[in-house]
Amino acid sequence: MVATELRVIYGDTDQMGVVYYANYLRFFEAGRTEFIRAKGLRYRDFEASYQLWLPVTEANVRYLQPARYDDLLRVETSLAEIRRVSATFAYRLVREDGQLLVTGRTVHACIDLKGKLRRLPEALVSLLSAGETLEAT
Amino acid sequence: MVATELRVIYGDTDQMGVVYYANYLRFFEAGRTEFIRAKGLRYRDFEASYQLWLPVTEANVRYLQPARYDDLLRVETSLAEIRRVSATFAYRLVREDGQLLVTGRTVHACIDLKGKLRRLPEALVSLLSAGETLEAT
Amino acid sequence: MVATELRVIYGDTDQMGVVYYANYLRFFEAGRTEFIRAKGLRYRDFEASYQLWLPVTEANVRYLQPARYDDLLRVETSLAEIRRVSATFAYRLVREDGQLLVTGRTVHACIDLKGKLRRLPEALVSLLSAGETLEAT
Amino acid sequence: MVATELRVIYGDTDQMGVVYYANYLRFFEAGRTEFIRAKGLRYRDFEASYQLWLPVTEANVRYLQPARYDDLLRVETSLAEIRRVSATFAYRLVREDGQLLVTGRTVHACIDLKGKLRRLPEALVSLLSAGETLEAT
User: How far is it, in rounded angstroms, from Cα B27 to Cα B4?
Assistant: First the structure.
């Protein structure tokens, strides 16, 4: 698990006074990038060196409590599952006071430049899995 | 089912050259608002007259094919399920040429000003369900 | 001048109950694209056929009155000025009832793939200027 | 001057491979909030305790060089000018290697709940101006 801190800005909120529901996926992305960086890789280098991409094929979000303007949030990102051609990340969004606000998952396919599914490189699998407790499948 | 048209702008895309994954939830919201309007209600009037809100408690998205800059998209919004204190909308995002790009669902709780769960008003249930084929539950 | 209609969604607003100040630049972009389309060109074709880009080098916005959720807005886009290597668009954002809400301008440089300034193609100048009343310079 | 660090995410970019032009206003907002916090106030407390708001009435942005995915940026926020009923902030967006990317300004009116212009509270003026070099007017 890798934790990343984020501060909610006005631009993240909507007129209900809480973070707009789509923006949690932005927070998840920030968490995912920092997860990959913490494992020793920059996602932009991954794209450049492997010529592979990890587009999202599925996203699921559960909104338990709303985040609000100026909240300091912690995105806890884990690798939940890794398969031959896909990887699943899990997210927990936690407020400064420890309150769990939102949970979610994103599934990513591994594709090449032409959009064809490709096996996740062994090196990447090792690197992402290091220190992670994957779910039994 | 209610269909709404949308044009993808530069601001919806990311550097992969496709619509950023969070922005499909914006498209769903546009579809949802037009769904409610087509049933004879403006969502802002609903909030104002009933003093109730329908915040999202869950969102699920399946990304089949990416939408791209300047694509003309159709969001097909349906009411999938309606319960005592929640409603589920289903979305199909279809490109001009008929290609299905993204599907999704959002679950909405009915809450009052204090954030307490409240029964969906009968009038609202009738109105939203009119002409819709709900899923067997 | 070319007019484009837009509907404000929840995702455009912030907790002040009005459209977030950055999002007017999204509305301007929608207006600009429709302006170019109305003149007979799709911006994506321009990029592809000329191998030129028109990135924004300057943006100015005046916020007179706020736009709100569900407002139906009209973006009136004009070509204000055209020079050897740049073009300036002007925008007026008008609410359904005729109230002027926001005005703005964006200046765009013409660059090639390598980021070098390039003369705006004559054909493009003619096309964009057709029917427009440019400002005296 | 108060400096705030930001990391560019995928969601900030567009298909030109650079940060979308509207999103720099999000970065400015983050800088502005941290400026106010560094001066000893949280903007949300300001709104709550004074019952005043500082909506943007004007924004100007100059795009010198694009920011890109994963760039670590520093927003340098200063108070440029303060008047009876308005305040102007100036921003410089600088990349990790020292390259200046974007500059901008936002003008904010001071209004009450009813949207009426109100004099900026003396206490706020003192607090925001502390340590700042205002422009001669």
Answer: 9
Q: What pTM, to 2 d.p., does this model score?
A: 0.96
Contact D13 B11 (CB under 8 A): no
Chain C nearest-CA distance from A87, in A, is 29
Q: In this structure, what CATH number is given to the domain that contains residue D57?
A: 3.10.129.10
For A6, which residue in chain D has the nearest alpha carbon? Answer: D6
- Structural domains in chain B (count): 1
Helix (H, G, I), strand (E, B) or coil at C5: strand
What's the pLDDT tens digit per position in D74-116?
Answer: 999 999 999 999 999 999 999 999 999 999 999 999 999 888 9
Chain B positions touching C26 (Cβ under 8 A) are 9, 11
**A34 falls within a domain:** yes
Domain for residue C82, yes or no?
A: yes
Per-residue pLDDT at A136 exceeds 80: no
End-to-end CA distance of chain A: 19
Q: How far is A9 from chain D (nearest CA, A)?
A: 6
Q: Report residue C130: phi and psi, to 5°.
A: -55, 120
Which chain D residues are closer than 8 Å to A43 by Cβ?
Answer: 70
Question: Whole-number mean pLDDT of chain A?
Answer: 94
Q: Which residues of B touch D (CB under 8 A)?
A: 10-11, 13-18, 20, 22, 68-69
| Structure-block tokens of residue C4 | 């484009």
Question: Which residue, chain included where needed, has tokens 């191998």?
Answer: C51
**Do the chains contact at A70 and D9, CB–CB below 8 Å?**
no
What's the pLDDT tens digit per position in A3-47? 999 999 999 999 999 999 999 999 999 999 999 999 998 888 888
Instruction: Output the CA angle D16-D20-D26, nearest 5 degrees.
Output: 160
Q: What is the pLDDT of residue D137?
A: 59
Full residue range of the structural domain in which residue B26 is found: 2-129
Pair A25, A91: CB distance under 8 Å: no
Whether the per-residue pLDDT at C136 is higher than 70: the answer is no
Say what the ipTM of the complex is: 0.94
Answer whether residue D134 is part of any domain: no
Residues belonging to chain A with any Cβ–Cβ distance to chain C shorter than 8 Å: 10-11, 13-18, 20, 22, 68-69
Q: Is D27 a member of any domain? A: yes
**In chain B, whose CA is at the least distance from the CA of A106?**
B61
List A73's β-bridge partners, or say none.
Answer: A6, A95
